[in-house]
Amino acid sequence: MIMFILLSTITVKAFDTPNDGGKSITIKAYNVPETVKKALVYRKTEGDTTYTLAGVMSILSYRFMDADSTIKNGKPYYYRVDFYFPDTVISVEADSPGIAYAQWYDKTKTSSLIFLIVFSTFVLVFIQLAKKDPEGLYIRKIPALDAIDEAVGRSTELGKPTFFVHGLLGITDAGTLAALTILRRVAKKVAEYDTPILVTNYDPIVMTASQETVKQAYTEAGRPDAYNEKNIIYLTYEQFGYTAGVDGLMVREKPGAIFLQGYFFAESLILAETGHSVGAIQIAGTTAKEQLPFFVAACDYVLIGEEMLAASSYIGREPVMLGSVKGSDWGKVFLLAIIGIGVAIGTIGSILQSAGNGALMNVFEKILAFF
Amino acid sequence: MHISTNPWVWIAAILTLAIYSFLYKDNPFYKFAEHLFMGLGIGYGAVLLWYNSIIPRLWNPLAHGTSPTRFFLLIPIALGLLSLGIFSRRYSWLIKYPLAFYMGAVTGLSVPVAFEANIFEQAQGTILKHSMFSNPWLGISNIIMFIGVITTITYFYFSKQHRGLLGKSARVGIVYIMLAFGASFGYTVMARISLLIGRMQFLLHDWLGIIK
Amino acid sequence: MLKKQIPLAITFITGVIIVVTFFIPHPPFGRLQQDALTWYSVIFGFTMLLGVDSLVKFHYTKLRRREKGWWFSIVFYCGFLLSFITGVISEIRFGDAFNINSSFMYFYNTILVPLQSTMFALLAFFIASASYRAFRARNIDATFLLVTAVIVMLGRVPVGYMLWHKLPDLTSWILNVLQLGPMRGIMIGISLGTVAMSLRLILGIERTYLS
């Protein structure tokens, strides 16, 4: 009698796994009593006489994704699930075969698409507006970038070289690209002041990009003859080996100014403290939020996260770059507006729900799920 | 005291002391350890790259694979060879091609990931929900967190002068940032001290056998 | 054209394709992101030769000209050849340089790991000196940093509990609540800045990498 009741309540459905590239079928069970101990999923295809074990269904979600390498798109697969109860085993077949297909669009990424379109629109619109009215653009003061000239000047007065230490990520990191922009500014200043510069690199591609950047800066400063490729050196491809090498150079060369720019890890404090011990003025910049506290504690100036990414706009002051910064700022406003609206709906919805009307609360839950 | 007779323990101990000698001042022992470290590091990096990248992603598919699409791997080989143009003054500009591919691929990858993994998750966590106010202290804490997020974002607003409401909000933001940095700093101190304990244990136990 | 326009076009086309394929799971688009990462690591393997070449030339020049500290360049070469040759020998002997019994891994564990650990352990000393300077509270912002740092440091050790039994709870609150807001804000800012920079790169507005 109990077996009959269990058989009549449990249903199993097999369907194409949504939002994927195909070759995957999802099997879901409904109305499964909580006393189930385990559930095994079996599969067969057309022409097969027996089922073969496909896998173990989760008894938390009652869901199993069959992504076996033998699954082909467009072919029907039949499933049976064996539910193990304390006293019995119930086998339930899926009411229809599952057929896998590849989707052309992943619906779960709609929120990313919308935000990408909105953000890109802001950036492009403000870039166009900037081209029409370059005077109307403003970027707030970033003290660390203003201090570049002061740092290089101090180094020149003391007759000491300027060090530029790249971080540990490659040229594909946004922070490393921002560091190259700052390097260009530093290199131009050292070329004008005729101060020696030493650029250390962890990544070979960053080294070649640094060489080109410094060469270009010297040319812009009217001193192409003063450029020395040997001042841009590659140390090693090991985190603490790089740190040991940079530290050694710092204590031997005793620079007057040190720029620590890029993405750093645990070695950030070692570099910053060694730089401080040689008496150099230090300007750090990183997008590694875990290392920012150490740079703030040990360095004279710090570019915090996004301030570093705004460096190319700040230093160059080109209207197009400033326009993109404004577009990015409007992206922040949009995000803050969504958060604000979400909070407002959630608050009002909560009040209404306690009064017996849960409709707005449902809207709020859907907004959260959309993210 | 039970001094180790293993020569490799002695080598490790001497190199440890050579690195620590840097704390006093630069000296030939530190320079020796530094240069050895850099040499070993680049050799290790080259071997690691060979085994983690070249062999599984290039050699195995080309030499032992059966899929016809594996010949697309000739494209990154060609781009990689272009980067070697840097060795020639005349053809050094050829490195711009693999660089351009790098930049396009990685920036293309980073854009949607930035939204999904960072922006949306953080924004979703910031939106105040009813469950966050199950008790007064939890509610106050979540409001403090909420204010922290909003004011920190306003600090990074670059295209307007920080005056009036924006200025006040940005000022609150930088205070929050300093409080957060202090917390991170204090949190890491113990972890860093424990690193020193680990090395001391090696020297005093494994090398000199002074402690058990 | 060859030196500027074509690289910019490559960046644009590759960037747009990779962004679009993020939303399209259907083959072959769904695989393109993974393939791009594979291509990236293959190209990087070639560029590593640039780094090795640069280092070898740098130290060779120092040796040849007998510049100050030239004999340390010999030490560098010894380290490089030691790891590289043992890597090759281990591959031939074991089929895998990272086999636990290989000489490559032996030198890694006996020389490289102690060096790494010791450099890492230097942080204990440097964090003490950084703390001493940071805690002198030159301005109001540094005072805020000092206050939370001291509370968290004390709250994580037994003496903190002895001073005030609620200090560990306050520490936990600072780490889970007070710190969370600004770190989220910084992360959102960095992510938006990265997206803006990525868009500038794809559109060819930002050309730093081409110099």
Please give the radius of gyration of chain C in angstroms: 26 Å
Q: What sequence of helices (H) and strands (E) makes up the elements of chain A?
A: HEEEEEEEEHHEHEHEHEHEHEHHHH
Cα-to-Cα separation, first versus last residue of chain C: 15 Å
State the name of the first-level CATH class of the largest domain in chain A. Alpha Beta
The total strand number of chain A stands at: 14
**Biggest sheet record of chain C:** none
Question: Percent of residues of chain C in helical segments?
Answer: over 70%
User: Uncertain spans of chain A, ≥5 residues at pLDDT below 50?
Assistant: none
Q: How many helices of chain C does DSSP assign?
A: 8
DSSP strand content of chain C: under 5%
Commentary on this structure:
The complex is a heterotrimer of chains A (371), B (212) and C (211). With 371 residues, chain A is of the alpha/beta class. Chain A folds into three domains: 2-99, Immunoglobulins (Immunoglobulin-like), CATH 2.60.40.10; 107-133 and 320-370, no CATH class; 140-316, Rossmann fold. Chain A has helices at residues 2-9, 110-132, 143-158, 174-193, 204-220, 239-253, 268-277, 292-298, 306-309, 311-316, 319-354, 359-370, and strands at 11-16, 25-30, 38-45, 52-57, 63-66, 76-84, 89-93, 98-99, 162-166, 197-201, 232-234, 257-261, 281-286, 301-304. In chain A, strands 11-10-9-12-13-14 form a six-stranded parallel sheet, sandwiched between helices. In chain A, strands 3, 4, 6, 7 and 8 form a five-stranded antiparallel sheet that branches. In chain A, strands 1-2-5 form a three-stranded antiparallel sheet. The longest helix of chain A has 36 residues, at 319-354. Chain B is extended. Helices cover 74% and strands 0% of the residues of chain B. Chain B has helices at residues 7-20, 28-64, 74-83, 96-126, 136-155, 164-207. Chain B has a domain at 133-212. Among the domains of chain C are: 1-58, no CATH class; 68-123. Chain C has eight helices and no strands. Chain C has helices spanning 5-21, 29-64, 71-94, 103-134, 140-155, 158-163, 167-178, 180-202. In chain C, α3 packs across α4 (103-134). The longest helix of chain C has 36 residues, at 29-64. Chains in contact: A-B, A-C, B-C. Chains A and C meet through α2, α4, α5, α6 and α7 of A and α2, α4 and α8 of C.
